[in-house]
Amino acid sequence: MYLIFNIAQVIKNQFCILIIIYPSCYSPKMPLSLTIEKEFAQNSERVKSVDQHPTEPWILVSLYSGTVCIWNYQSQTTEKSFKVTESPVRSAKFIARENWIVTSSDDKYIRVYNYDTVEKIKEYEAHTDFIRSVAIHPTLPYLLSCSDDKVIKLWDWEKDWSCIQIFEGHSHYVMQVAFNSKDTNTFASASLDGAIKIWNIGSPTAEFTLDGHSKGVNCIDYFSRGDKPYLLSGSDDFTAKVWDIETKSCVQTLEGHEHNVTAVCVHTELPIIITVSEDGNVHIWNATTFRLENKLNYGLERVWAIGQLKGSNKVAFGFDKGTIVVKMNGSHTWDSVDLQA
Q1: How many CB atoms lie under 10 A from the CB of residue 134?
Q2: Euclidean distance between CA atoms 316 and 214, whole angstroms
Q3: Is-contact 143 154, C-beta < 8 A?
Q4: Rounded mean pLDDT of 117-123?
Q5: How far, in Å, CA of 306 to CA of 317, rounded?
Q6: pTM recorded for the entire structure
Q7: Of 210, 218, 258, 326, which one's alpha carbon is 20 to 30 angstroms from that of 283?
């Protein structure tokens, strides 16, 4: 292992001494060994979301123009491209176990397509305002959607896409929802009311709220280290925050962006945090020391989306003027580090 924290607490005379022992191969100030190579670039209209297919070399991209594209980053070609609506498609996800793509857009509709035939499987009006984001349950036939109508809805596609639960409590637009990978009965939501709420899929009211951002929250990403669940958030206050779900507290604030943070991601294989912003920059943070390790700018203006897949070292970014796929390799893995405040 590259890094092991051994912590001994000695309590004597009402003083607590915290001893942190690092092996000789690691220094907390040592930068992460990381190489980032651009593998694919595609110019387009404004990208609103990106998603990776779990087995095919495909990137799913939804555009502000209402078009959805599947790009093959190995062959550098377009697999599929079709018009969904005249409105912006703000979110598009693969449901690979069904050979589907699901889209949500400003016209308030959710649409489902077979990605092999591009046949439309389902179309229905899901909300009364723009739909900002959708999330796919990892095992159950469930889809979460959130909207500018301040409401989150849970849909069951085995029941003809019926709405089986409505979640209310936010006082402004709900920008993103994300299932907890550690406990898939729970999920988080981010809202422009500045709050992050944690929910159980069986209850219409939130279990608790995380407050700490000074402006609206745009994006969230769950991750876990060992048995501890964490949440990463990004905000219009130009910061990202790392939250300890168990203690309901902020572990760290990441400062450095010069505009709204639009998407956040914790790499599943490497101990890095990725944040992107309307300032056009991609920031790569060491998730152990919270040090800014890399700043990337590809000259494609604002960054809106990150697409990363468990088990993959490829990360996709969506910009105002196109999509970039990069390959990230590093000498440290999450198996060799523990997250410490």
Answers
A1: 23
A2: 29
A3: yes
A4: 97
A5: 5
A6: 0.87
A7: 210
